[in-house]
């Protein structure tokens, strides 16, 4: 980022006091305050208090990640007979768009009109940026409603065929206490299958049943109850860091994908999405170290529910396609709805 580039933070509020703050650097959700069962507001996403740590650190707190979120094996894919090489910023893989992904750019913003609770941000990715073909124009709109829902709406168009997978990378801790772990949160995932990974955390191509495994969240489960089970997939991810195949009806509208609840505070969050997958990441690499060496948050004090297309999809023809072509419009929506349990 150029040092003379101004970064702005916009605040959205609704009639019940819920507040979302969005930063133009990375089109990031930097704060989201919701009430507990006693009406006390607290921030339920992890993040930094100033810009400098965002420039130095890598955990993608609340950012819009792209051009392709998650991993692409060996930083390489073939499209229309041509091989493209991407930065290998995660071992041999390319992760979250590469070295300078969408999370590390300042997006332009259309300031909310008076009385509106919506913010639209835009970024133009040049042809060849981070190795990706085609000039891509991307938009993300945050919309806070009086039904206590925050919707995140994505659109993109391209000048040449290219993979696109835009994701919000918020770390949630519904307790409102960033020092507390998320291991006692209850999680439900509407998914009967997940995509197991190899040692490099790349999907093998199998769509495996969650039945009789620690990956079965079809009924509410305490996150910490099975996270340390003897399981090869848990060992590879150092916990949960996998993509679930969401159970879909074929509707074009966002469908319920997950429910997260913190029993202590009573806060609960429903996640609806148009996306086919969800990466549940249990904060296994948060380490409490200073910025530049991880994050300032301790082990498993935040979790991600990244609604997405599957990792490494450009190299798996059987996965839902992520290829956007000229004349098409990429459209995906995720809705976070906040409730309070008695």
Secondary structure layout plus pairing:
Blueprint: E1 9-13, E2 19-23, E3 28-35, E4 41-43, H1 51-56, E5 64-65, E6 71-72, E7 76-79, E8 82-85, E9 94-95, E10 108-110, E11 118-125, E12 136-144, E13 149-158, E14 162-163, E15 167-168, E16 186-189, E17 191-195, E18 208-209, E19 221-222, H2 232-237, E20 241-246, E21 255-261, E22 267-273, E23 277-281, E24 304-308, E25 323-324, E26 330-340
Antiparallel strand pairs: 1-2, 2-3, 3-4, 5-15, 6-9, 7-8, 10-11, 11-12, 12-13, 13-26, 14-25, 16-19, 16-21, 17-18, 17-20, 20-23, 21-22, 22-26, 23-24
Brief rundown of the structure:
The chain is mainly β. The protein is 4% helix and 37% strand.
What does the model show?
By secondary structure, the chain is mostly beta strands. 4% of the residues lie in helices and 37% in strands. It has a 9-stranded antiparallel sheet, with no helix packed on it. It has a 5-stranded antiparallel sheet with strand order 18-17-20-23-24, with no helix packed on it. The longest helix is centred in the first third of the chain and has 6 residues.
Task: Supply the key terms.
single chain, 342 residues, mainly beta, nine-stranded antiparallel β-sheet, five-stranded antiparallel β-sheet, 2 helices, globular
Shape: globular
What order do the SSEs take from the amino end to the carboxyl end, as H and E?
Answer: EEEEHEEEEEEEEEEEEEEEHEEEEEEE
Strand content: 35-45%
Fraction of helical residues: under 10%
Strand order of the largest sheet: 10-11-12-13-26-22-21-16-19
As residue ranges, the low-confidence spans are none
Determine the structural class based on helices, strands and strand pairing: mainly beta
Query: Quick one: biggest sheet?
Result: 9 strands, antiparallel
**Tally of DSSP helical segments:** 2
* Through-space gap between termini: 45 Å
């Amino acid at each position: 980022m150029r040092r003379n580039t101004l970064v702005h933070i916009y605040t959205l509020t609704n009639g019940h006091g819920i507040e979302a703050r969005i930063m133009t650097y990375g089109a990031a959700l930097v704060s989201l305050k919701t009430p507990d069962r006693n009406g006390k507001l607290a921030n339920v996403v992890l993040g930094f208090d100033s810009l400098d740590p965002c420039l130095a650190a890598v955990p993608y707190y609340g950012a819009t990640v792209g051009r392709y979120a998650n991993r692409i094996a060996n930083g390489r894919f073939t499209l229309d007979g041509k091989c493209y090489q991407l930065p290998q910023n995660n071992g041999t893989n390319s992760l979250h768009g590469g070295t300078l992904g969408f999370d590390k750019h300042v997006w332009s913003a259309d300031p909310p009109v008076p009385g509106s609770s919506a913010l639209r941000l835009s970024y133009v990715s040049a042809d060849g940026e981070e190795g990706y073909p085609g000039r891509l124009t991307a938009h993300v709109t945050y919309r806070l409603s009086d039904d206590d829902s925050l919707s995140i709406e994505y659109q993109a168009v391209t000048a040449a065929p290219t993979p696109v997978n835009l994701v919000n990378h918020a770390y949630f801790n519904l307790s409102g206490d960033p020092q507390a772990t998320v291991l006692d949160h209850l999680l439900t995932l509407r998914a009967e299958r997940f995509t197991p990974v190899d040692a490099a955390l790349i999907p093998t191509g199998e769509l495996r049943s969650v039945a009789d495994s620690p990956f079965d969240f079809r009924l509410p489960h305490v996150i910490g109850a099975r996270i340390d089970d003897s399981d090869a997939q848990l060992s590879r991810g150092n916990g949960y860091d996998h993509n679930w195949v969401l159970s879909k009806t074929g509707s074009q509208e966002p469908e319920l994908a997950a429910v997260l609840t913190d029993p202590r505070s009573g806060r609960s969050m429903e996640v609806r999405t148009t996306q086919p997958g969800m990466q549940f990441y249990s904060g296994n690499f948060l380490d409490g170290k200073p910025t530049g060496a991880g994050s300032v948050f301790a082990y498993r004090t935040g979790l991600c529910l990244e609604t997405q297309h599957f990792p490494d999809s450009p190299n798996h023809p059987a996965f839902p396609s992520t290829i956007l072509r000229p004349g098409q419009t990429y459209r995906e929506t995720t809705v976070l709805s906040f409730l309070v349990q008695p």
